[in-house]
Amino acid sequence: MRSKDELRLSVLRGIKAAIKHKEVEKIRVLDEPESIQILQTLVKQRKEIDRSSLQGQPPRTRRKRNQRARHH
């Protein structure tokens, strides 16, 4: 498998696991708005992780990383 495919697969598995976890917690299948809320939470968490991991890095490194993130 290519690296990008592995990354995509990992992300999709994480999303599926988060939704399944919430379904088990609520003891029912989630409706669409609840699933969307989970996705929004995951995106917010990812952005926060990226933001915190960039702190303390040189400005040049941050710019490069931000440019790469925009192209994906």
Q: Can you describe this structure?
A:
The protein has three helices and no strands. The chain has helices at residues 3-26, 32-54, 59-71. The chain is elongated and about 50 Å long. The two termini are 18 Å apart.
Topology:
Blueprint (H helix, E strand, L loop, with lengths): L2 H24 L5 H23 L4 H13 L1
What is Rg?
Answer: 16 Å
The secondary-structure class comes to mainly alpha
* Residue fraction in strands: under 5%
Question: What would you call the shape?
Answer: elongated
Helix content class: over 70%
The main sheet comes to: none
CA(first)-CA(last) distance: 18 Å
Order of helices and strands: HHH
Number of helices: 3
The overall pLDDT average reads: 86
* Structure summary, number of beta strands: 0
Spans of at least 5 consecutive residues with low confidence: none
Task: Summarize the model shown.
The protein has helices at 3-26, 32-54, 59-71. The chain is mainly α and 72 residues long.
Distinctive features:
mainly alpha; elongated; 83% helix; 72 residues; 3 helices
